[in-house]
Amino acid sequence: MNRTTKRLTERIFLYFAVIIILISVLVPFAWMISGSFKTRLEIQASDSKIAGKEPSWIPRNFTLVNYKTVNKEVKIFDYFKNSIIISLGTMFFSVVIATLAAYAISRFSFPGRTAYSISVLSTQMFPGILFLIPYFVMFIWIRKIIGLPMRDTYWGMIFTYTSFSLPFSIWMLRGYLNTIPREIDEQAQIDGCSKAGALFRVIIPLARPGIAAVGIYGFVMAWNEVLFASVLTGNETTTVAIGILRYITAQEARWGGMMAACILVSLPVLIFFTVLQKQFVQGLVAGATKG
Amino acid sequence: MHLFIQKIKKNRIAYYLIIPALICMILVHILPMLWGFIISFSDLDLYTISDWSKAPFIGIGNYLEGLDINSPTGGRFLRSLWNITYYGIAVISIGYFIGLGVALILNQEFIGRTIVRGLILLPYIIPDSVAYSVWRFMFQARIGIVNKYLLSWGLISETKVWLVGDKSIYAVMVASIWKGWPFTCLILLAGLQTIPFELYDAAKIDGASIWQQFRYITFPLLMPITSVLLLLSTLWNFNAFNQFYVMLGDDPGVAAEVPSTLILREAFNSFHYGIGAAMSVILMAIMLIFSILYIKKIRPGEVEH
After folding, report:
1. How far is residue A148's CA from residue A159's CA, in Å, rounded to a whole number?
2. C or N: which end of chain A has fewer Cβ atoms within 10 Å?
3. CATH number, span A70-290
4. Domain ranges of chain A
5. Following DSSP, what letter does each residue of B80-120 receive, concatenated?
6. pTM for the whole thing?
7. Is B34 among the domain residues?
8. What is the per-residue pLDDT across A135-194, written as a single tens digit (0 to 9) for each?
9. In this predicted model, what pLDDT tens digit does every residue of B139-169 receive, in sequence order?
10. Any chain A CB within 8 A of the CB of B205?
11. Domain membership of residue B291 as a residue range
């Protein structure tokens, strides 16, 4: 009896904690959704100090106007297209390049490995702002010398973001690969796989959750990036991360439109993530150690 | 020597595997870094930007101005270094404890666990500009939801202006913690899952309490991933830009100025590329100290099992 009571209290405490966690995670989302259905007048007229006029969770005058006019003053759909192209490109290249490099660091004790690992780790430490100015100067210079446009082009941005996501991707994937027992690929080699063959036949399937994580990281990183996008993109390549800020100008604050755009901009990452989350939760390491 | 060459030959494949990553790193990190170093000694401005090599060489002039507490630029730069440190300590430590706590909770069995695990990642997965735009909306003085609750709970008596002035850095901290802890939690959860159940089973048979299991199994086995996590958070933190730029605009004000926002304005609004580059180099020097300490601790060359 005593034992069941104890277990019951534990359960109640657990669910209570889970509910608190969920509320604190979800409040801003609720506010975003609620704001996107409010009229501009309602948002501007609300006032926390005046009873009856406080900002409310349920829109007083429910409206879809923010969604209907989302592309009217800010060309968010164009920014959307740009972001999709740049993010998918970044994801693809960083997954491929990071998997190869991480495998090399994790499984080969080649001369120069320590130096290389340290340099991967150190590039991670340099703040992006450090590269921004020389990078900008370099873009201008390359254009002048070779006539190759880098600024405000898709591939210029993909190249930039891929390189930014690489150090962390390599580092994380190396961590994942290190948790896969070496005995597994040694076994594969005994069974007749080459070292490269072991990568494709054994390691990549086992490291799927890690690779998925790297892919998500690359995509999200490119979709999110603000600093370089604010300097290196122009009319042709403005990404959503920058575009979304254009709803608030010195002249007017279109909060409703901004919240509607926020929801639209979040959708691709959310859908993409939901599809790949299985890979995440699958728990690669548990599978490997059990098997 | 012969042995060394043989070792290189034996590991030929490894070099092919790292070449693509190496090229990206050289072009985007190493060359610009050296370039930035050179620029930091020149008076590069709007007139010389089209050909950087024509900019006059001024030695350490940019550094002297950037670190002079009495000059307006230098004063703001030093303040921004203090601000980012203060902000970083708060955000990283609070974020880590929340992340660890939630990871331990989500590692338990309960109904709907998979859904909850997905939901807590929402803040991490949504774009920074979205998250911080929403928080900017929430922190609005008159029309925001934060003041509404603080007023109704009696914690404040007047609507507070959060996004301008002294308080603004706290508003950004709250938003950053909300955005950042799920990532910490995700990584720690992955770490928890690498701990074999057998260890806990054995501990239970030996009569270990929940605290003892945490103290002697969970915590030590999470240490490697924790140190990588703290390293990365520290390094990323010095890079913090999005939250300040989105919530407070390109000039966040003295109290919430951080190096990134200052350097960006100095270079691309005032067109003092040279001073901006010098500030970047100073920032890098600080990070170098941190990362050497950490690299020594992590020792990436060692083979881990």
Report:
1. 14
2. N
3. 1.10.3720.10
4. 1-68, 70-290
5. HHHHHHHHHHHHHHHHHHHHHHHHHHHTS--TTHHHHHHHT
6. 0.83
7. no
8. 888 888 888 888 888 788 898 899 999 988 898 888 878 877 888 888 887 888 888 777
9. 998 888 898 888 888 888 888 888 888 889 9
10. no
11. 40-298
